[in-house]
Write a structure and sequence with these properties.
There is one protein chain. This protein is α/β, with parallel strands linked by helices. The chain folds into two domains: 125 residues, Medium-chain alcohol dehydrogenases, catalytic domain (Quinone Oxidoreductase, Chain A, domain 1); 139 residues, 3-Layer(aba) Sandwich (Rossmann fold). Strand 9, helix 4 and strand 10 form a beta-alpha-beta unit. It is elongated.
């Protein structure tokens, strides 16, 4: 069979022939991989920079869509089963979920990973959100931030606020309101939020922007903040005065903050929510071109999905 192999963290993976997989164990199923996404976490794991990076040599890829011997499509998570950038994979049965008929193979391969970040944040890290809640998304123009908008609505949000640098893109996302982040994030003007009662902050950026928000924003009801990503920095400062004067809860969301079993349990409902959304921009590439594609990272072309 064929697979992409990472032999050194300093170079892209190469497409090569590898030994045929052994017969799957009683807890596994063998799938023919028909689509797998090049997510940010996949790049990070393949570079050795992610906390979950497997040892070398490794087959990259953390999930995908596969077809079983009976012809049925499944979404699978490959964290416990080896990489997904291969023609076939043996994956644990309890890490697979049947695909809805109305969700496209390529769309699912592209979207499940970035969608999981906000879905799991809202379903497992936020606690007792009120009905018709208000959410502020920091980093709303990122791939995951954009998906968080319709997913928040699917989970009951009545008012979705997006914050990012690009005012034009913000205007195209169907937000209820938006906030433009300053060139220096710490100088961002959050005055438009004054008097507004936010129930939940989903933060994809970290760094000085959430610090600026928490330093200036005041409200009377509880505020839950969920840290998801680090687009602008790995550290943030929590203002002590804010912590003392607000009913404030901070949590993180990611593997470790929630369990893989929790994510798999949420998948059927999330897949149905993705099926109800408009198709997102995706660039489809042959897996044999993985080495050339690895160095190409062009904004605006959509998430890359590898196919056989």
């Amino acid at each position: 069979m064929h697979a992409a192999i990472v032999s050194t963290y300093a170079k892209p993976p190469t497409y090569t022939t590898v030994p045929t997989l052994p017969t799957p164990t009683v807890s596994q199923v063998q799938l023919r991989v028909v689509a797998t996404g090049l997510h940010n976490v996949v790049r990070s794991r393949a570079s050795g920079a992610h906390f979950s990076s497997p040892p070398l040599p490794q087959i990259p890829g953390i999930d995908g869509i596969g077809v079983a011997s009976d012809g049925k499509r499944y979404y699978f998570n490959a964290f416990r089963s080896g990489g997904s950038f291969a023609s076939h994979i043996n994956v644990e049965r309890d890490s697979t979920v049947p695909m809805p008929d109305d969700l496209g193979t390529v769309q699912a391969a592209a979207l499940v990973n970035p969608a999981t970040s906000s879905w799991m944040a809202m379903k497992t890290r936020a606690v007792n959100l009120p009905s018709a809640f208000t959410v502020l998304i920091l980093g709303a123009t990122s791939a995951s931030g954009r998906l968080a908008i319709p997913l928040a609505r699917a989970l009951g949000a009545a008012h979705v606020i997006g914050a990012a640098r690009n005012a034009f893109i913000l205007s195209t996302l169907g937000l209820d309101s938006s906030l433009v982040v300053a060139e220096d994030p710490s100088a961002t003007d959050f005055s438009s939020l004054e008097g507004g009662e936010i129930d939940l902050v989903l933060d994809y950026v970290n760094g000085p922007l959430p610090t600026a928000l928490l330093s200036t924003h005041k409200q009377s009801k509880p505020l839950q903040y969920v840290h998801i990503g680090t687009l602008s920095g790995h550290d943030m400062t929590l203002p002590g005065a804010f912590l003392r004067s607000n009913d404030f809860t901070i949590r993180g969301s990611g593997p470790g903050a929630w369990r893989l079993d929790d994510a798999v349990r949420e998948l059927p409902e999330m897949l149905d929510a993705l099926a109800a959304m408009e198709d997102q921009k995706v660039r489809v590439v042959k897996l044999e071109d993985v080495e050339q594609e690895w160095a190409r990272n062009v904004d605006g072309e959509g998430r890359v999905v590898f196919v056989p």
